[in-house]
């Protein structure tokens, strides 16, 4: 602003006009991203039947017909990966899949495998989270006008009470530009999130750990319950 103030008044007026022009562009961008969000809501609703079918196949409640025709392109990386018979990752994968047989229903560990192979999610998943994530049977979204909710559906397990088999986390969005800094607008932003309360079974809270420590000048140990990193820190 100080630099602009040093310019001749006609030039300052042109710059003010350009800023007004840019602000109008921001308003158009706000409308664009709002309509994109509405499109996402609408098309996600059209996909719900496909998500139901996916869940049924994963859980083994429906056996799909034999797929004789491939409708997707081959990934050359798949063949490259399988060529390395001594590959350590491949060996570990075979070890994990060893319990899977011709009588196994559905696709075991599907969602855990997805989370482990998506960089943004794999950073959140800790080793102690994996046994519970093996029980994850479905992940869905529920859209609202200014927020969306991620829904995690679990089958009965030894970690969660039956009342907590459906976990949710809602993300609240700001679709408009910040009035103080409108020219920094690049699209909707998550402004806050709210996770549901999780009812853990006794001794099974994955977000806590028991730590033993010895007090100074004392022989006996003290046990403390401390928070720890977990995917389930909602």
UniProtKB/TrEMBL annotation:
- What protein am I looking at? CG3708
* Protein's organism: Drosophila melanogaster
Example GO biological process: nucleosome assembly
* Name of one Pfam family that matches: NAP
Q: InterPro entries attached here? A: NAP-like_sf, NAP_family
Gene Ontology, cellular component aspect: nucleus
At the highest ranks, the source species' classification is: Eukaryota, Metazoa, Ecdysozoa, Arthropoda, Hexapoda
Annotated SUPFAM superfamilies: NAP-like (SSF143113)
Q: Spell out the family assignment given in the record's similarity comment.
A: Belongs to the nucleosome assembly protein (NAP) family.
